[in-house]
Amino acid sequence: MPELTNSSLVLGGLAACAVGVLGISYIYLRREKRKFTQVGVVSKLFIHPIKSCRGLEVSQAECVALGIKSNGVMDRSFVIICPEGRFVTQRQQPSIALIAPSLSNDKESLLINAPGMPTLTVPLKDQNGPVHNIRIFKLPVDGEDCGHEASEWLSQYLGKPGYKLIRHSKRFKGKILTDDPTWGSKAKRGEQATYQDLAQVNILSAASLESLNSKLDKPVQLRNFRPNIVVEGTTAFCEDKWKYVCIGTDALLRTTHLCDRCRQTTVDPDTGTFYETGEPLKTLKTYRMAPSGFPDQKRHGSSPLFGTQLAVESQGTIKLGDPVFASME
Known about the structure:
Elements: H1 6-22, E1 28-29, E2 34-35, E3 37-47, E4 56-58, E5 60-64, E6 67-70, E7 73-74, E8 78-81, E9 100-103, E10 109-113, E11 120-123, E12 131-136, E13 139-145, H2 148-158, E14 164-167, E15 175-176, E16 192-193, E17 201-205, H3 206-213, E18 229-232, E19 244-247, E20 251-260, E21 267-268, E22 273-274, H4 281-287, H5 297-300, E23 305-314, E24 316-319, E25 323-327
């Protein structure tokens, strides 16, 4: 068990109170008939409105059909596309790590900032703009063009004309997860997502990051891995074994697969440039590869594993300090 900090003690106290209120229903989730035990508490929550750009740290979020959202802002519900129509991430343009969206005071717009750029205001409501069909790792999903001003802003920042900001409108379906050529067998019929890479929600334990940083000359941040939910109070990589996760009064998540990591983790989130060392990916490959005989070894290939991908089984609200219960079967 990692050493408890003051913040851990506070979160632990909140968790104890929550357990007293919620009672035994967490230990045996009646509908699923699975045994749930407490594995930690929620210590951080993140929503990433624009795929691959900086996230918002929030105190409360909702798990919904397409993933996780807060204050009406859906995780990965905007995406940048290049002039050729392909989606853009830090893998191709590391400087987009410095694009920082925030929520306007009236909660009706995203305010988007980046170094040397004026603030761009983008309405959250559908504007009935032109429709683009995008492919996110071979899965098609539609999006609405956020307009000329957003295109000019991105093109100026990225130094090339033709970039566009695309919004996932309520009038569109999400990408169909069962159609994924690699991980579709892990999804259930009807499950969809917006512009996430592979799954709706990502969980990471604070202890896993501590384990990694203990092996690095220069520690990395949670922002290198872009999780939605961070769990404190568990041992490193305990999340590898969670089959189902229950948080708050109603939210139930199902693990689909472990999260394999790519070169995006090697972008410094404070400078928007690649680390020359190739870390932390280089070190992760020394001790976090799928072992021989692991059921998904071939699917993960040469990518190290860090964090867990989950689908939303039951919708519900989660908040900081909530106890996290997991079933290992």
